[in-house]
Protein backbone atom coordinates (compact mmCIF):
# COMPACT_ATOMS: atom_id res chain seq x y z
CA UNK A 1 0.00 0.00 0.00
CA UNK A 2 1.77 3.11 -1.26
CA UNK A 3 -0.53 6.14 -0.99
CA UNK A 4 0.00 9.62 -2.34
CA UNK A 5 -0.27 11.01 1.20
CA UNK A 6 0.39 9.26 4.50
CA UNK A 7 -1.15 10.85 7.60
CA UNK A 8 0.49 10.09 10.94
CA UNK A 9 -2.11 10.49 13.67
CA UNK A 10 -5.74 9.43 13.76
CA UNK A 11 -7.16 12.23 15.85
CA UNK A 12 -9.66 14.70 14.45
CA UNK A 13 -7.04 16.88 12.77
CA UNK A 14 -5.49 13.90 11.02
CA UNK A 15 -8.89 12.59 9.95
CA UNK A 16 -10.03 16.01 8.72
CA UNK A 17 -6.89 16.48 6.63
CA UNK A 18 -7.20 12.93 5.28
CA UNK A 19 -10.86 13.40 4.34
CA UNK A 20 -10.34 16.71 2.60
CA UNK A 21 -7.20 15.55 0.77
CA UNK A 22 -9.02 12.43 -0.44
CA UNK A 23 -11.82 14.59 -1.84
CA UNK A 24 -9.16 16.40 -3.84
CA UNK A 25 -8.32 13.14 -5.57
CA UNK A 26 -5.36 11.86 -3.54
CA UNK A 27 -4.98 8.33 -2.20
CA UNK A 28 -4.63 8.50 1.59
CA UNK A 29 -3.42 6.21 4.37
CA UNK A 30 -3.87 7.16 8.04
CA UNK A 31 -1.65 5.47 10.63
CA UNK A 32 -2.71 5.68 14.28
CA UNK A 33 -0.39 4.57 17.08
CA UNK A 34 -3.27 3.60 19.37
CA UNK A 35 -6.95 3.97 18.42
CA UNK A 36 -8.67 6.75 16.51
CA UNK A 37 -9.35 9.69 18.80
CA UNK A 38 -7.74 7.89 21.74
CA UNK A 39 -6.10 10.95 23.29
CA UNK A 40 -6.83 14.68 22.81
CA UNK A 41 -9.75 14.26 20.41
CA UNK A 42 -11.62 11.87 22.66
CA UNK A 43 -10.83 13.61 25.94
CA UNK A 44 -11.79 17.16 25.01
CA UNK A 45 -14.68 19.24 26.33
CA UNK A 46 -15.45 19.79 22.62
CA UNK A 47 -15.90 23.53 22.89
CA UNK A 48 -16.68 25.22 19.58
CA UNK A 49 -15.54 28.76 20.22
CA UNK A 50 -14.26 31.84 18.51
CA UNK A 51 -14.45 33.59 21.90
CA UNK A 52 -11.13 34.68 23.37
CA UNK A 53 -9.01 33.32 20.52
CA UNK A 54 -5.48 34.47 19.83
CA UNK A 55 -5.74 36.97 16.94
CA UNK A 56 -3.50 34.76 14.80
CA UNK A 57 -6.06 31.94 15.01
CA UNK A 58 -9.14 34.02 14.32
CA UNK A 59 -9.24 33.77 10.50
CA UNK A 60 -9.17 29.97 10.75
CA UNK A 61 -11.54 30.00 13.71
CA UNK A 62 -14.12 32.22 12.03
CA UNK A 63 -14.01 30.02 8.93
CA UNK A 64 -14.42 26.91 11.08
CA UNK A 65 -17.36 28.52 12.88
CA UNK A 66 -19.28 28.73 9.62
CA UNK A 67 -18.53 25.08 8.87
CA UNK A 68 -19.74 23.91 12.29
CA UNK A 69 -23.15 25.41 11.56
CA UNK A 70 -23.38 23.24 8.43
CA UNK A 71 -21.18 20.33 9.50
CA UNK A 72 -23.53 17.83 7.88
CA UNK A 73 -22.36 19.14 4.51
CA UNK A 74 -18.78 18.15 5.36
CA UNK A 75 -19.17 14.79 7.12
CA UNK A 76 -22.84 13.80 6.87
CA UNK A 77 -23.52 14.40 10.56
CA UNK A 78 -23.79 17.48 12.78
CA UNK A 79 -21.34 15.94 15.29
CA UNK A 80 -23.72 16.87 18.10
CA UNK A 81 -23.01 20.57 17.62
CA UNK A 82 -25.31 22.91 19.54
CA UNK A 83 -25.03 26.67 19.07
CA UNK A 84 -25.80 27.36 22.72
CA UNK A 85 -23.37 30.29 22.83
CA UNK A 86 -20.15 30.77 24.77
CA UNK A 87 -19.84 33.27 27.59
CA UNK A 88 -16.64 34.51 29.22
CA UNK A 89 -17.58 35.88 32.63
CA UNK A 90 -15.93 38.88 34.28
CA UNK A 91 -15.87 38.31 38.03
CA UNK A 92 -14.67 41.83 38.83
CA UNK A 93 -14.25 45.24 37.22
CA UNK A 94 -10.60 44.59 36.33
CA UNK A 95 -11.60 41.53 34.31
CA UNK A 96 -14.39 43.47 32.61
CA UNK A 97 -11.94 46.23 31.68
CA UNK A 98 -9.61 43.67 30.08
CA UNK A 99 -12.47 42.06 28.16
CA UNK A 100 -13.67 45.47 26.97
CA UNK A 101 -10.18 46.32 25.70
CA UNK A 102 -9.99 43.04 23.77
CA UNK A 103 -13.38 43.55 22.13
CA UNK A 104 -12.37 47.10 21.17
CA UNK A 105 -9.15 45.78 19.56
CA UNK A 106 -11.13 43.19 17.61
CA UNK A 107 -13.57 45.84 16.40
CA UNK A 108 -10.69 47.97 15.10
CA UNK A 109 -9.59 44.94 13.06
CA UNK A 110 -13.09 44.55 11.63
CA UNK A 111 -14.05 41.59 13.82
CA UNK A 112 -17.36 41.92 15.64
CA UNK A 113 -18.16 38.37 16.73
CA UNK A 114 -17.68 39.12 20.45
CA UNK A 115 -20.30 41.19 22.25
CA UNK A 116 -19.74 43.01 25.54
CA UNK A 117 -22.52 42.47 28.07
CA UNK A 118 -23.19 43.97 31.47
CA UNK A 119 -24.54 42.53 34.70
CA UNK A 120 -28.21 42.69 33.71
CA UNK A 121 -27.76 40.89 30.39
CA UNK A 122 -25.46 38.40 32.07
CA UNK A 123 -28.25 37.44 34.46
CA UNK A 124 -30.75 37.23 31.63
CA UNK A 125 -28.49 34.70 29.95
CA UNK A 126 -27.49 32.83 33.11
CA UNK A 127 -29.98 33.44 35.94
CA UNK A 128 -28.11 31.23 38.42
CA UNK A 129 -24.75 33.00 38.05
CA UNK A 130 -23.25 34.29 41.29
CA UNK A 131 -24.16 37.92 42.13
CA UNK A 132 -20.50 38.98 42.30
CA UNK A 133 -20.14 38.65 38.49
CA UNK A 134 -20.28 41.99 36.67
CA UNK A 135 -20.51 41.17 32.94
CA UNK A 136 -18.57 39.43 30.23
CA UNK A 137 -18.07 38.64 26.55
CA UNK A 138 -20.76 36.76 24.63
CA UNK A 139 -20.71 34.93 21.28
CA UNK A 140 -24.17 33.48 20.58
CA UNK A 141 -23.05 31.41 17.58
CA UNK A 142 -20.41 29.50 19.53
CA UNK A 143 -21.28 26.33 21.41
CA UNK A 144 -20.14 22.76 21.89
CA UNK A 145 -20.28 19.36 20.21
CA UNK A 146 -19.95 15.67 21.01
CA UNK A 147 -16.30 14.62 20.56
CA UNK A 148 -16.98 10.91 20.13
CA UNK A 149 -19.73 11.55 17.62
CA UNK A 150 -17.35 13.86 15.76
CA UNK A 151 -14.63 11.19 15.67
CA UNK A 152 -17.07 8.63 14.26
CA UNK A 153 -18.42 11.11 11.71
CA UNK A 154 -15.00 12.14 10.41
CA UNK A 155 -13.81 8.51 10.37
CA UNK A 156 -16.84 7.32 8.42
CA UNK A 157 -16.70 10.25 5.99
CA UNK A 158 -13.00 9.58 5.41
CA UNK A 159 -13.65 5.92 4.71
CA UNK A 160 -16.43 6.80 2.28
CA UNK A 161 -13.94 9.06 0.50
CA UNK A 162 -11.57 6.11 0.09
CA UNK A 163 -9.18 6.75 2.98
CA UNK A 164 -7.44 3.66 4.39
CA UNK A 165 -6.87 3.55 8.15
CA UNK A 166 -4.55 1.32 10.18
CA UNK A 167 -4.79 1.46 13.97
CA UNK A 168 -2.28 0.23 16.57
CA UNK A 169 0.44 1.04 14.07
CA UNK A 170 3.53 2.84 15.37
CA UNK A 171 5.84 4.68 12.99
CA UNK A 172 9.44 3.72 13.78
CA UNK A 173 11.39 5.57 11.08
CA UNK A 174 11.01 8.02 8.21
CA UNK A 175 13.48 8.43 5.37
CA UNK A 176 13.27 10.67 2.32
CA UNK A 177 14.48 8.89 -0.81
CA UNK A 178 14.27 11.00 -3.93
CA UNK A 179 10.71 12.29 -4.22
CA UNK A 180 9.24 9.74 -1.83
CA UNK A 181 9.12 8.91 1.87
CA UNK A 182 9.98 5.45 3.12
CA UNK A 183 7.94 4.82 6.27
CA UNK A 184 8.76 1.92 8.56
CA UNK A 185 6.12 0.90 11.07
CA UNK A 186 5.18 -1.86 13.49
CA UNK A 187 2.86 -3.19 10.78
CA UNK A 188 5.08 -3.04 7.75
CA UNK A 189 6.69 -0.54 5.40
CA UNK A 190 5.00 2.08 3.22
CA UNK A 191 6.01 4.69 0.68
CA UNK A 192 4.31 8.03 0.12
CA UNK A 193 5.07 11.27 -1.66
CA UNK A 194 3.84 13.44 1.23
CA UNK A 195 3.67 12.96 5.00
CA UNK A 196 1.25 14.84 7.26
CA UNK A 197 2.47 15.01 10.85
CA UNK A 198 -0.72 15.14 12.93
CA UNK A 199 0.70 12.99 15.71
CA UNK A 200 -0.42 15.18 18.60
CA UNK A 201 1.56 14.50 21.77
CA UNK A 202 4.08 12.51 19.70
CA UNK A 203 4.47 15.02 16.87
CA UNK A 204 7.91 16.00 18.17
CA UNK A 205 9.05 12.38 17.78
CA UNK A 206 7.96 12.39 14.14
CA UNK A 207 9.73 15.70 13.54
CA UNK A 208 12.88 14.35 15.20
CA UNK A 209 12.89 11.36 12.83
CA UNK A 210 13.36 13.70 9.86
CA UNK A 211 15.99 15.88 11.51
CA UNK A 212 13.67 18.69 12.57
CA UNK A 213 13.58 18.55 16.38
CA UNK A 214 10.98 20.84 17.93
CA UNK A 215 10.16 22.07 21.41
CA UNK A 216 6.80 20.98 22.70
CA UNK A 217 5.32 19.93 26.01
CA UNK A 218 2.59 17.38 26.63
CA UNK A 219 -0.61 18.87 27.97
CA UNK A 220 -2.67 16.53 30.18
CA UNK A 221 -5.91 18.46 30.62
CA UNK A 222 -8.52 16.95 32.91
CA UNK A 223 -12.31 16.84 32.85
CA UNK A 224 -14.90 15.86 35.44
CA UNK A 225 -18.58 15.04 34.96
CA UNK A 226 -21.21 15.21 37.68
CA UNK A 227 -24.42 13.40 38.38
CA UNK A 228 -27.54 14.64 36.60
CA UNK A 229 -28.91 17.77 38.13
CA UNK A 230 -31.56 20.41 37.54
CA UNK A 231 -31.32 23.19 34.99
CA UNK A 232 -28.15 25.17 35.79
CA UNK A 233 -26.79 26.75 32.60
CA UNK A 234 -27.35 26.78 28.84
CA UNK A 235 -24.25 28.49 27.36
CA UNK A 236 -20.72 27.18 27.72
CA UNK A 237 -19.08 29.21 30.49
CA UNK A 238 -15.51 30.32 31.08
CA UNK A 239 -14.14 32.87 33.53
CA UNK A 240 -11.62 35.52 32.56
CA UNK A 241 -8.23 34.77 34.12
CA UNK A 242 -9.27 31.38 35.50
CA UNK A 243 -8.85 27.82 34.26
CA UNK A 244 -12.48 26.92 33.71
CA UNK A 245 -14.74 25.46 31.04
CA UNK A 246 -18.24 24.65 32.28
CA UNK A 247 -21.29 23.35 30.48
CA UNK A 248 -24.42 21.30 31.06
CA UNK A 249 -25.06 18.35 28.76
CA UNK A 250 -28.39 17.39 27.22
CA UNK A 251 -28.59 14.61 29.83
CA UNK A 252 -28.37 17.13 32.67
CA UNK A 253 -24.84 16.34 33.81
CA UNK A 254 -22.31 19.12 34.36
CA UNK A 255 -18.97 18.94 32.53
CA UNK A 256 -16.11 20.84 34.15
CA UNK A 257 -12.63 21.38 32.74
CA UNK A 258 -10.59 24.28 31.51
CA UNK A 259 -6.94 23.39 31.68
CA UNK A 260 -6.20 21.79 35.04
CA UNK A 261 -3.37 19.33 34.35
CA UNK A 262 -3.17 15.66 35.28
CA UNK A 263 -0.14 13.43 35.81
CA UNK A 264 1.82 12.17 32.82
CA UNK A 265 2.90 8.53 33.07
CA UNK A 266 6.63 7.80 33.08
CA UNK A 267 6.41 6.16 29.66
CA UNK A 268 4.59 9.26 28.33
CA UNK A 269 1.86 7.08 26.81
CA UNK A 270 -0.99 7.96 29.17
CA UNK A 271 -2.12 10.43 31.81
CA UNK A 272 -4.01 10.10 35.08
CA UNK A 273 -6.14 12.44 37.15
CA UNK A 274 -4.59 14.73 39.76
CA UNK A 275 -7.50 15.27 42.14
CA UNK A 276 -5.92 18.23 43.89
CA UNK A 277 -5.29 20.08 40.63
CA UNK A 278 -8.74 19.23 39.31
CA UNK A 279 -10.32 20.67 42.43
CA UNK A 280 -9.17 24.14 41.31
CA UNK A 281 -11.47 23.94 38.27
CA UNK A 282 -14.31 22.57 40.38
CA UNK A 283 -13.89 25.38 42.91
CA UNK A 284 -13.95 27.94 40.09
CA UNK A 285 -17.24 26.46 38.84
CA UNK A 286 -18.76 26.50 42.33
CA UNK A 287 -17.68 30.11 42.75
CA UNK A 288 -19.73 31.01 39.68
CA UNK A 289 -22.63 28.67 40.50
CA UNK A 290 -23.02 28.28 44.28
CA UNK A 291 -26.05 26.03 43.70
CA UNK A 292 -23.58 23.30 42.67
CA UNK A 293 -22.57 22.73 46.28
CA UNK A 294 -23.39 19.13 47.17
CA UNK A 295 -23.46 17.90 43.56
CA UNK A 296 -21.65 14.57 43.28
CA UNK A 297 -18.75 14.01 40.92
CA UNK A 298 -19.23 10.81 38.87
CA UNK A 299 -16.16 10.45 36.67
CA UNK A 300 -12.91 12.25 35.84
CA UNK A 301 -10.29 11.71 33.14
CA UNK A 302 -7.18 13.21 31.58
CA UNK A 303 -6.18 13.49 27.92
CA UNK A 304 -2.88 14.15 26.17
CA UNK A 305 -1.89 16.58 23.46
CA UNK A 306 1.00 18.71 22.26
CA UNK A 307 1.44 22.20 23.71
CA UNK A 308 3.72 24.85 22.26
CA UNK A 309 5.40 27.61 24.24
CA UNK A 310 3.12 30.30 22.82
CA UNK A 311 0.02 28.04 22.80
CA UNK A 312 -0.37 28.53 19.04
CA UNK A 313 -0.29 25.46 16.78
CA UNK A 314 2.25 24.55 14.14
CA UNK A 315 0.57 24.42 10.72
CA UNK A 316 2.50 24.28 7.48
CA UNK A 317 5.45 22.82 5.62
CA UNK A 318 8.57 21.54 7.31
CA UNK A 319 11.45 24.00 7.29
CA UNK A 320 13.95 21.15 6.84
CA UNK A 321 12.65 18.61 4.34
CA UNK A 322 10.34 18.47 1.35
CA UNK A 323 7.07 16.62 1.37
CA UNK A 324 6.27 17.04 5.07
CA UNK A 325 3.32 19.06 6.40
CA UNK A 326 2.92 19.70 10.13
CA UNK A 327 -0.36 20.09 12.03
CA UNK A 328 0.20 19.84 15.78
CA UNK A 329 0.53 21.80 19.01
CA UNK A 330 -3.08 22.91 19.38
CA UNK A 331 -2.49 23.38 23.11
CA UNK A 332 -5.96 22.60 24.39
CA UNK A 333 -8.07 24.57 21.91
CA UNK A 334 -7.86 22.74 18.60
CA UNK A 335 -11.29 21.07 18.48
CA UNK A 336 -13.12 23.99 16.88
CA UNK A 337 -10.40 24.44 14.26
CA UNK A 338 -10.69 20.89 12.87
CA UNK A 339 -12.57 21.69 9.61
CA UNK A 340 -10.57 24.77 8.60
CA UNK A 341 -7.13 23.39 9.52
CA UNK A 342 -8.01 20.19 7.67
CA UNK A 343 -8.79 22.25 4.59
CA UNK A 344 -5.49 24.12 4.75
CA UNK A 345 -3.40 21.01 5.39
CA UNK A 346 -5.16 19.16 2.56
CA UNK A 347 -4.40 22.03 0.19
CA UNK A 348 -0.72 22.04 1.18
CA UNK A 349 -0.44 18.27 0.81
CA UNK A 350 -2.23 18.00 -2.54
CA UNK A 351 -1.45 21.32 -4.23
CA UNK A 352 1.73 22.43 -2.51
CA UNK A 353 0.23 25.79 -1.58
CA UNK A 354 -2.62 27.56 0.17
CA UNK A 355 -3.99 31.09 0.14
CA UNK A 356 -4.28 30.99 3.95
CA UNK A 357 -1.80 33.21 5.80
CA UNK A 358 0.25 30.81 7.96
CA UNK A 359 3.26 32.89 9.08
CA UNK A 360 2.16 32.79 12.74
CA UNK A 361 2.08 28.98 12.66
CA UNK A 362 5.55 28.44 11.16
CA UNK A 363 7.47 25.50 12.65
CA UNK A 364 10.60 27.65 12.99
CA UNK A 365 9.02 29.21 16.12
CA UNK A 366 9.49 25.94 17.98
CA UNK A 367 12.55 24.50 16.23
CA UNK A 368 15.51 23.49 18.32
CA UNK A 369 18.57 25.56 17.42
CA UNK A 370 21.88 24.25 16.22
CA UNK A 371 20.69 20.78 15.15
CA UNK A 372 21.72 19.60 11.71
CA UNK A 373 19.22 18.12 9.31
CA UNK A 374 19.68 14.47 8.36
TrEMBL record:
<protein>
    <submittedName>
        <fullName>FAD-dependent oxidoreductase</fullName>
    </submittedName>
</protein>
<dbReference type="Pfam" id="PF01266">
    <property type="entry name" value="DAO"/>
</dbReference>
<dbReference type="GO" id="GO:0016491">
    <property type="term" value="F:oxidoreductase activity"/>
</dbReference>
<keyword id="KW-0560">Oxidoreductase</keyword>
<dbReference type="InterPro" id="IPR036188">
    <property type="entry name" value="FAD/NAD-bd_sf"/>
</dbReference>
<feature type="domain" description="FAD dependent oxidoreductase">
    <location>
        <begin position="4"/>
        <end position="348"/>
    </location>
</feature>
<dbReference type="GO" id="GO:0005737">
    <property type="term" value="C:cytoplasm"/>
</dbReference>
<dbReference type="InterPro" id="IPR006076">
    <property type="entry name" value="FAD-dep_OxRdtase"/>
</dbReference>
Amino acid sequence: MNPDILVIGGGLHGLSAALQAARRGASILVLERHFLGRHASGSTAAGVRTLGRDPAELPLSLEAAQTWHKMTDLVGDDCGFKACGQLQVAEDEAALTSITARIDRLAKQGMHHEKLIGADELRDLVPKISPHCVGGAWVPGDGSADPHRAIRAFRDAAKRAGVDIIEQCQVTSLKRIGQSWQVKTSKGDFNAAVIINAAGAWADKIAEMVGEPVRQAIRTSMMVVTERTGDVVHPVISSFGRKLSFKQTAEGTLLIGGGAQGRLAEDRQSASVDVQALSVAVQAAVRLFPSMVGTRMVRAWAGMEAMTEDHIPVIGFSAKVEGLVHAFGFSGHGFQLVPSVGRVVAELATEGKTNQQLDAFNVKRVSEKGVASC
